[in-house]
Amino acid sequence: MPVIAVRDLAKTYSTGAVEVRAVRGVNLDIEAGEFVAVVGPSGSGKSTFMHILGCLDRPTRGSYELEGRDVSRLTRDQLADIRNTKIGFVFQGFNLLARTSALENVELPLLYRGPSVRGAERRRRALAMLDAVGLADRVDHMPNQLSGGQQQRVAIARALVNDPAILLADEPTGNLDSTTSREVLDLFRQLNA
Amino acid sequence: MILITHDHEIAAHGNRIVQFHDGLVVRDETSAGERVTGAAPAAEVLQ
Ligand SMILES: Nc1ncnc2c1ncn2[C@@H]1O[C@H](COP(=O)(O)OP(=O)(O)OP(=O)(O)O)[C@@H](O)[C@H]1O
Ligand SMILES: [Mg+2]
Predict the structure, then answer these.
(1) How far is CA B2 from CA A33, A94, A120, A182, in A?
(2) pLDDT for res A192
(3) What is the tens place of the pLDDT at every residue in A47-63?
(4) How many domains does chain B have?
């Protein structure tokens, strides 16, 4: 069973009098362990598609099954629940909480899951993820004390700490120089293996 | 994992490349060059 199964997926935005058909009927199956790059020119619907895969938005047509469950018609609360448990996000702008250490940033998704993960266990898992992204020696640094590449590594650790079914990264190297971009892409490969 | 980018050089890091154009998938290939079914036939037009 594919982890993602998308059928005839479409999204039309209605803004005032204008209708924008951002995604117009996409079919796609993605298996666990695949490293898929979605590429295309500006305005081609990539982010719209990612928002639907990430349960940040619902399609206007078609179906989306995540691990065999149709999530295309769920309520906002149900979608939030799926996001917190099944999906990791990495964005261009890192989106770390300021004045909050790397360790605490990575612990956050585990906090959102409620009291099921205890403090010591949260800390252990967050430390293990920071170690996996090569930041064992930066866990107490604040975001403004880290380089861009290091901040993105923290964001990657945060996205993966819940062991999500899918990891979505939208232009994750957009704010990084070419050497640092390559390092981050290599890290994705390595973590995906 | 799914990586979204406008940059083909970055996309080349994936094992599979799905190309969007105007809200549709116009190309879907593994890095080995093998075609994945389901991509719209418009693929050839854009090459
Ligand atoms: N919230 C929205 N409301 C209305 N229109 C939108 C909204 N989000 C995106 N669009 C429109 O949908 C189309 C696709 O946008 P989208 O952001 O998905 O493109 P993209 O491929 O991610 O582009 P980029 O590479 O520039 O990020 C565009 O024409 C855009 O103007
Ligand atoms: Mg975009």
Answers:
(1) 10, 16, 31, 16
(2) 87
(3) 999 999 999 999 999 99
(4) 1
